Amino acid sequence: MLGLREVDGTFIQKKHKLTCHCGCVEIELDLPKGLEDVRRCDCSLCRRRGAIVASAPLKNIKILKGHEMLYPSDFKMQYSERCHSVEFKENDAAK
Question: Are 57 and 29 within 8 A, CB to CB?
Fold first, then answer.
């Protein structure tokens, strides 16, 4: 199955860069097949926005800037220390 290549007018690149809300953390994702295993996030913030979430192996996630600004939560999530947006969640199935 091919992955999703566009979300709300944003084209998903094979090497896709993204930032947290305030821009202090920048991440590059290796997405050779686009977004895979796309589903709705069920946290309270994302439910309000209708946000989607996708899985990628941790080896495909590269922190380009702001590693020192990430802090872990109790649920294996990495948050931006400044704006508190979720950057990624470690999931044993995605390793």
Answer: no
Q: Cα–Cα distance between 16 and 29 in angstroms, integer? A: 5
> Do residues 77 and 61 lie in contact, with contact meaning Cβ atoms separated by under 8 Å?
no
User: Mean of the per-residue pLDDT values for the chain?
Assistant: 78
- Segment (H or E) for 45: helix 44-49
Helices (H), the chain: 44-49
Residue 67 is given by DSSP the state: G
pLDDT tens digits along 49-78: 777 778 788 889 898 998 888 877 766 677
pTM, two decimals, is: 0.70
In CATH terms, is domain 6-69 a member of 2.170.150.70?
A: yes
Domain boundaries, the chain: 6-69
Tokens 């979430």 found at: 53
Mean pLDDT of the 16-32 span: 88
